[in-house]
Design a protein that fits this description.
By secondary structure, the chain is an all-beta fold. The protein is built from 1 helix and 15 strands, in the order ββββββββββββββαβ. The strands form 3 sheets. Strands 1, 2, 5, 6, 7, 8, 9, 13, 14 and 15 form a 10-stranded mixed β-sheet that branches. Strands 10-11-12 form a 3-stranded antiparallel β-sheet, with no helix packed on it. The chain has a two-stranded antiparallel ribbon with strand order 3-4. The radius of gyration is 18 Å and the shape is globular.
Length: 225
C-alpha cells in the first residue's frame, strides 16, 4: 500500500461530537425522549452546515481523512491537504452531528482537522500530558482522566443557558455526547482508493465495542460542563 511518511511520530485523536443546543428552558419538553444524551449509532441522514467562508448553508462535503483500525488514512488525490509541518504537535480529526429542533431530525456537520492537541478542540477539550507509549491525560471537562491508547470514551455533559454580564447574547442550553479515541502515535498515513475509503467514518466510534462512558450530567455546575 502507498503511504505518506511523516518527519516525526504524532499523537492522533479521533472525535465524533453529538450536540443538542437551544435557547429557552421549555423547549426541552418538546424534544423526543433519549435525544438529549443519545449514545447510539449515528441517526444523521443528511448534511447541513453553515460555511463561514462562503456565508452560505451547505448540504455536502468531501470526506478524505479518517482512521482504519486506529491508523490514519487519506483518500487518494488529497495528499496535499495534510499540511503537516515540523511544527505540528498533534493531529485531531473532528466529526459532528447535531439535532435540529425545527426539523426534528439529526444533521451531519462538516468534518474538521486540527493540527494541535489543545487549541480549537471541541468544547475546550485538551491534552494535559502524554507518555512514551501514547497514553494521554485530559482534564476535560474538569479533573484529570486518562485516555488509554485505542480505547473509545464518551463524555456526557450538560450546561444551562446563561447570559454573561455585559453581553447582548446568551450561551444556549447544551447537551453533548463527545466520543473520543486516542489512536496513539503514528508516523505515516496510508493512502486508500475511493472504494477502500468508502466506509471510513468517525461516526463508527458510536458503535465501538466497550465504550467507556464518563457521565457529568449530575454536576453541581449549572452553566459549564
Amino acid at each position: 500500500m502507498e503511504t505518506i511518511n511523516l518527519t516525526k511520530p504524532l499523537l492522533f485523536l479521533e472525535f465524533f461530537v453529538r450536540s443538542v443546543e437551544f435557547h429557552g428552558k421549555d423547549k426541552a419538553k418538546s424534544i423526543p425522549p433519549k435525544t438529549l444524551h443519545y449514545l447510539g449509532k449515528s441517526l444523521s441522514k443528511q448534511v447541513r452546515y453553515y460555511d463561514t467562508k462562503t456565508r452560505k448553508w451547505k448540504n455536502s462535503f468531501e470526506k478524505f481523512i479518517g482512521f482504519s483500525d486506529s491508523k490514519p488514512v487519506i483518500k487518494k488525490g488529497y495528499e496535499n491537504e495534510l499540511k503537516i509541518t515540523n511544527q505540528t504537535e498533534g493531529f485531531c480529526f473532528i466529526a459532528k452531528e447535531y439535532y435540529n429542533l425545527e426539523n426534528r431530525q439529526w444533521f451531519r456537520s462538516s468534518d474538521k482537522i486540527v493540527r494541535d492537541l489543545n487549541a480549537n478542540l471541541p468544547y475546550g477539550f485538551n491534552i494535559k500530558s502524554i507518555d512514551k507509549d501514547g497514553n494521554a491525560i485530559t482534564d476535560f471537562p474538569r479533573g484529570e482522566t486518562p485516555l488509554i491508547k485505542n480505547k473509545v470514551y464518551a463524555y456526557v455533559c450538560h450546561s444551562e443557558e446563561y447570559q454573561p454580564i455585559g453581553s447582548d447574547s446568551a450561551f444556549p442550553n447544551r447537551y453533548i455526547v463527545l466520543f473520543v479515541k486516542n489512536c496513539g502515535f503514528h508516523d505515516k498515513f496510508t493512502i486508500l482508493s475511493e472504494r477502500e475509503f468508502h466506509n471510513i467514518d468517525s461516526s463508527n466510534l458510536c458503535i465501538s465495542n466497550d465504550i467507556s462512558v464518563r457521565d457529568y450530567r449530575k454536576s453541581k455546575f449549572r452553566f459549564s460542563f
